[in-house]
Amino acid sequence: MKKIANLFIITIILFVNHTFAQKAEKIITKDGAHYITTNIDYPITGTYLFEGEAEPIVQLNPDGTGIFQLGDLSKINMNWGIECFENGTPKYQKGFNYAVYSLWYKNKAETDANWTYAHFSIHFQKKKMFILGDRSKDYVD
């Protein structure tokens, strides 16, 4: 009976650990291997715009896909993720009232497309998130 109870406890621990584990995907960039995730405990998905503009946009979808619209308004369907450790914990640099992350994206249509780095930051006092410092979206804690 004790063996069954121990087996039951181990099964529950493994299930809970797997359920709450962050997911990380390994990518290869020009400067080596990195890991990315789409979950950083902030509502990062959504549409990022230049202030007062309707386009160009960056759209981050929860499933790691999205749209990166260039200055000429051409749209690239992309895969994206925030750099993390192999266990899925996001990598970031924290400042006084902000945090800086590495956003990686690549053209979804091109099988040999390179992953590209983009600066991603969260400004806690302003309640804004920025991609490349100029496209932003508001968020609520």
Give a written overview of the molecule.
The chain is mainly beta. The longest helix has 19 residues. An eight-stranded antiparallel beta barrel has the order 3-4-5-6-8-9-10-11. The relative contact order is 0.17. The protein is about 15% helix and about 45% strand. It has one helix and eleven strands; from the N terminus they run H-E-E-E-E-E-E-E-E-E-E-E.
Keywords:
141 residues; mainly beta; 8-stranded antiparallel barrel; 1 helix; 13% helix; globular
SS-based class: mainly beta
Straight-line N-to-C gap: 47 Å
| Helix residue percentage | 10-25%
Read across the widest sheet, the strand sequence of neighbours is 3-4-5-6-8-9-10-11
Number of strands: 11
Mean pLDDT: 87
The largest sheet, given as strand count, sense and whether it forms a barrel, is: 8 strands, antiparallel, barrel
Rg over C-alpha atoms, rounded to the nearest angstrom? 18 Å
Structure described in brief:
With 141 residues, the chain is mainly beta. The chain has one helix at 2-20; strands at residues 25-29, 32-37, 46-50, 57-60, 65-69, 75-84, 93-94, 98-107, 116-123, 128-131, 135-138. The chain is globular, with a radius of gyration of 18 Å.
